[in-house]
Amino acid sequence: MTKPSWIWRETAEVLGVLGVIASLIFVAFEIRENTRATRSSTIQDISRWSFDANAVFVENADMRAAWRAGCEGTLNQDQRDQLLWAFIGFMRIQANRFYQVQLGTIDEATAFSLGGKSAAYESPMFKQFWPSIRDSYEPDFQDFVERELLPLSTDSCRRLE
Predict the structure, then answer these.
(1) Which distant-in-sequence residues (6+ apart) come within 8 Å of 137 by Cβ?
(2) Mean pLDDT in runs of 10 for the chain (161 residues)?
(3) What predicted TM-score, i.e. pTM, was given to this entire model?
(4) Which of 130, 103, 127 minimizes the C-alpha distance to 42?
């Protein structure tokens, strides 16, 4: 005795629907894992770039001398150029943080905790150099810098003790 064909058809449809649901759950899980991996990679890259930017000052006596001269207001032209290029590098890293927040890859608190409000932005040199590099950036990033970072700039350098 065989089962009616409609039972087989209904069973096949139910199994097909369950297969589609299982596939969708798997895809959702994979997307979530990929999102986590992307965030992790982004955080690692920003951390590495921030560390590398700071390492330049640790490893390079000329950069440390330029920073001291900037803090003292006694920059010569070569030191000014060195610091300008350093700030351009800092701003490229900051722009990357900013756009990662805009994309939703990381949140603003994470971006700031990855060096987004470092001592470089607190220095008087930042306020001095920003106008000369400002036009290299998109208006939304310019607004962010002027709203969030320029207010951090002080009239004297913070001493690291």
Answers:
(1) 91, 95, 145
(2) 74 87 86 80 79 83 92 93 91 90 88 83 91 94 94 79 37
(3) 0.73
(4) 103
